[in-house]
Structure formats: structure tokens, C-alpha cells
Amino acid sequence: MPELPEVETSCRGIAPYCVGAEIKQLLVRQPRLRWPLDPDLESQIRGEVILNVARRGKYILLQLKDAALMIHLGMSGSLRVLSRFEPPQKHDHVDLVLLDGTIIRFTDPRRFGSIILNHQGDNHPLLNRLGVEPLSEAFSDEYFYLQCQRRKAPIKAVIMNSQIVVGVGNIYAQESLFQAGIDPRRPSNKIALARLKRLRAAIIDILHDAILAGGSSLKDFTSANGKPGYFQQTLLVYGRAGQACHQCGKLLTQKTIAQRNTVFCGRCQR
Fold it and tell me: What's the CATH code of the domain at 86?
């Protein structure tokens, strides 16, 4: 599933082509995504100018004058920039055609993504309960400590809770906890402030590094230029159950936490 680094990579990839561009057409080949596309969407956005490209959590926001075209990549989606029309493949469901001929093509094999016109801004039901952005000043040591102190849940479940902090998905949660030396099963309210500070710093570092690497391409994700991300080449625990820990040599353990497979080192993480 595309997580924050993959979505941020997509935003940065399409922004140079979109900002200031006029929308000429929306070509919909498959309207049945996670939620069916509004049949009037094309007429509502035709002729609008894209003022900005932003991200909120895992949503890509193409800001128009009075609304935002809100795109979610679902479990397998991606956006690709085409300089001219190319015959669509099986899972190329939507083309956003700009006035200069550039096409932003939405591909989604599993069709769990979505494209919605948002007139409500941050008050939209899909956005209004989201927590702070992990790369913003709002994700401070104080905020993180207070949120953890209020909860008895395993720390991995807490950092993956999008109502607390957005975009820390399964891959990056596991890698951050390993870097911070914290057992993902440990109750969040039993972790000292100093250790939570290390975890917060690790989350920020891991996300920054993943964005610079273009995200992780474990299955379907590619960036706007069609290239895969390569952060997966640096993964230290995710997907390595039963292999030796790179730090101590002990075999890595896998458990299910918050309904997700979780790999960690029983020696390095406490």
C-alpha cells in the first residue's frame, strides 16, 4: 500500500506539470473505484486552473479555485505523467488531461483508490479526523509524549493510528521502531520520554530518507516518471522474519500487532 513517502513522491513528481495548468478534460475509463466517480466530475473541473499540489496524510490535493481534486492511491495505485497520449493498459482508469497536452494518468489494479472533488477543505469527512503531519512542527516531542501517555496500546499501533499522526504505515513503523530500539509490543504509556524522543526522531529520519529514495516499490508503486522507488533496498527488519539482525545477528521475530505482520529484533529492541 502506498504510504506517506510514496504519496509525497507522487505529489512532488506531478507538481511541476500541474501547478498553473488548466484542466482540459477528464477521461474516465473505469468509474468504479473505491467510491464510484461522480458522473458530473468532468464538467465540474473542466477549465479550472490547478493552483497548487499538496498532501494531507495519504491524500493528494490538486487545489482549484473553490475546491480540491482529492486523490487517494488506495492499495496499489499510482500517478504517471505522460507528455502525449499513449494507449491505456488494463488498469489505467482515469486520465487528467491538461491544456498543454500533458496527461496525469491514474492507474489502480485493485481499484481501492479514489478521486473526489472536495469543497469542504480540512472539514471533509475523510480529512477532519486526521492527526498531525509527522514532518511538521506539530509533531513535537511534547505532543507525541502526551498522546502515548494516554494510551495502553502497543506503541506500533499508536504510531500507525492516523488520528494521532498520519502516514506512518507498516513498513516505516517497523523500521522506525528498530532504529529507536523499541519493542513494537511495548505499551505506549510505559515508554520513557527520552525513548519516545528517539522514536519521534527515527520516524522523521526514516520518512525523510524514504522520500529521497522515491518511496518503496514492494509491489505496484511507481513514481510519476514511471520509475520504482528504492528505499526497500535499505530495509533492516520489514519482510526479513527469520533472517539475522544486521546489528546483533539474532534471528528476527515476526508477530501480529494491530492485525499487521511485524518483524523486530528481540535483542536490540526492548
Answer: 3.20.190.10
Which pTM was predicted? 0.89
Pairwise CA distance, residues 235 & 250, whole Å:
16
Enumerate the active-site residues. 2-3, 58, 260
Considering Cα of 204, then 209, then 213, then 215, what sign does the dihedral take? negative
Do 195 and 97 belong together in one domain? Answer: no
Domain that holds residue 64: 4-123
Between CA 37 and CA 35 the distance in angstroms is: 6
Q: What are the beta bridge partners of residue 95?
A: 27, 105
Residue by residue, pLDDT tens for the chain (270 residues) are: 678 988 999 999 999 999 999 999 999 999 999 999 999 999 999 999 999 999 999 999 999 999 999 999 999 899 999 999 999 999 999 999 999 999 999 999 999 999 999 999 999 999 999 999 999 999 999 999 999 999 999 999 999 999 999 989 899 999 999 999 999 999 999 999 999 999 999 999 999 998 888 765 444 444 455 555 446 678 999 999 999 999 999 999 999 998 899 999 999 999
